[in-house]
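Service request form, structural biology core

Requester: graduate student, group of Dr. S.
Request type: structure prediction, single chain
Budget code: on file
Notes: please return the result as structure tokens.

Sequence provided:
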Amino acid sequence: MKKLLIIVLPFIFVSACEVIEAPYFEQEYLKSLPADERCLLEADELRAQLSTTDFKKNVLVEEMTGHQCGNCPTATKEVLSLQSQYGEQLIFISVHAGPLANNRPGQPKYSTDFTTDAGDEWYSNLNDRNAVPFGMVDRTLVGTNANEWAGFVQERLASPLKSNLEIFTCYETDSSSLGVVVDVLALENLGANTRLSVVMVEDEIVDWQKDYSVPSGVSPDIPEYSHHNALRANLNGTWGEPLSQDGMGANQTLTKSYSFEMDPSWNVNNCKIIAFVYNFDSKEVYQSELKSITD
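Core staff response, request fulfilled:
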């Protein structure tokens, strides 16, 4: 009987070890790593919990706007209404750019600068109307009439899904450092002109906004307007980066990681990462995804 135990127990021990499939690390060790490296390790543990087949087409809606644009709040309301209708399948970026986004330094109204270098370049290169509000739905259907945007969204939701994205975020409160990992899955062949853009937005920024939809006799200058999903930063450049030199084949996966230092003036609880894959030549967005930083 003792001899049998000597033979069996090592087998039991080895089997118990083998069921631990994911790598597990001490928190102190993880904290010592750069944010992007730490997030790569944490993403490895989380991937096993994700569905690998339940993919849905998301639609990216970008509204070019400005805090001195009195017609822009009505357009934003249309986007928020569409967002309530389509939920997580509609991803929204508010891009403050153009003359009506200019700020007034030192003045009590409109002193905040919501513009970004990337947003300015997008305005110059993508906004062929040179006006706000200007909407882009997957950067293929565009226009200044917000009443048309619902039809644009429906059309894009019906388009074939060419890729899928997963985002992982790792935020370190003590250092304000953020790690971001983005997994790209090609569902069909993607050419060398396909790029990945990763941006940060901040939601519910309370500040001045001009709004011409207020009742007659009421000042259109609103001091406590809630700005939604304002573009704050681009983590991998104005136009993103190529997925790879030769593109990606169907069912091929790719992982990108980034490290970013948060601006202390931003509310990290309202900040989100948005990633989207698009064709650099046609500008068509194939797929987009959003992840809150602190979730």
